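Team,

Forwarding the record for the chain on the shared tracking sheet. I've put the sequence and predicted structure together so nobody has to dig through attachments.
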Amino acid sequence: MKSSVPTYALYGEHGKNLVPESLHCESIPQRSRLYDWEIKLHRHDLFVQILYIRSGIAHIQFEDRRFSVHGPCALFVPALHAHGFRFSEDIDGAVITIVTQQMENLLAHHADLLAHFQSPRHVPLEPGEASYRAFSQSIELLLAEYDEAHAWRLPLLESLLGTVLVLLARKIATLAHVEPGKRSSRGVMHLHRFKTLLNRSFREQRGISYYAERLGITPTQLNRICRDELGLSALGVINDRLLTEARRDLAYSSLSVKEIALTLGFSDPSYFSRFFTKHAGASPSDFRTMVRDQFDRGRTSALPGA
């Protein structure tokens, strides 16, 4: 059995790859019009996306969180995060899809910047602000260049994409009241590598020492970095990753609680139930019921016309 949340390259395209440039740009109406303005819940395994909404309204679902936005704004969607949209028919904007590795390569020497792209983001934009003008001009240049076939197109696209990512991270940091570049680059780089290793190995129930050894630091240092950057212990980060996947499976898959426990490395389903109840505040079965009831209500309220 497999999850009911499909994983696509681009929405609706099974088994198709992005262009060799590791970048794809298209207007929001270009694809959403084909699906009656609704992009149902799905995720991408290798890609991140930036949605730039010039005007119009979008009803957003990030995992089990639902909200509405209006343009101008930007949205950032990381790989492996379930998301869905319903757009107003007058929506105007664009979707930029980037291979995750391409983004990480562009920002490889700026770990503090990469840290702002680890979770879904909604970034409202104010037309009167200088930051809006810089961001909108850069993204419009990127979209225009993508549609052309000029000489040295690829290096210019890469440069413009880097500019867009930096300006977006600045705005995210400002909204979060974090001074851009203030955090320790080394600490954030360790954190990013830790989360990458964790995403690969969380089902194996590895301990803190396992990750610290591979990062070349001590468990105490890893704990300090996690607390400084995330406000959690390293064990808390590990548990949070397990809990996130458990919530996804309970909400979007037809796996039994016992099967979910086994896929997450719990040999004892009863222990998994106690673990989940302690951290989520509800038993796995109760959580599944509550979320699916919420989804049913959302079809007629949070996502109009769904």
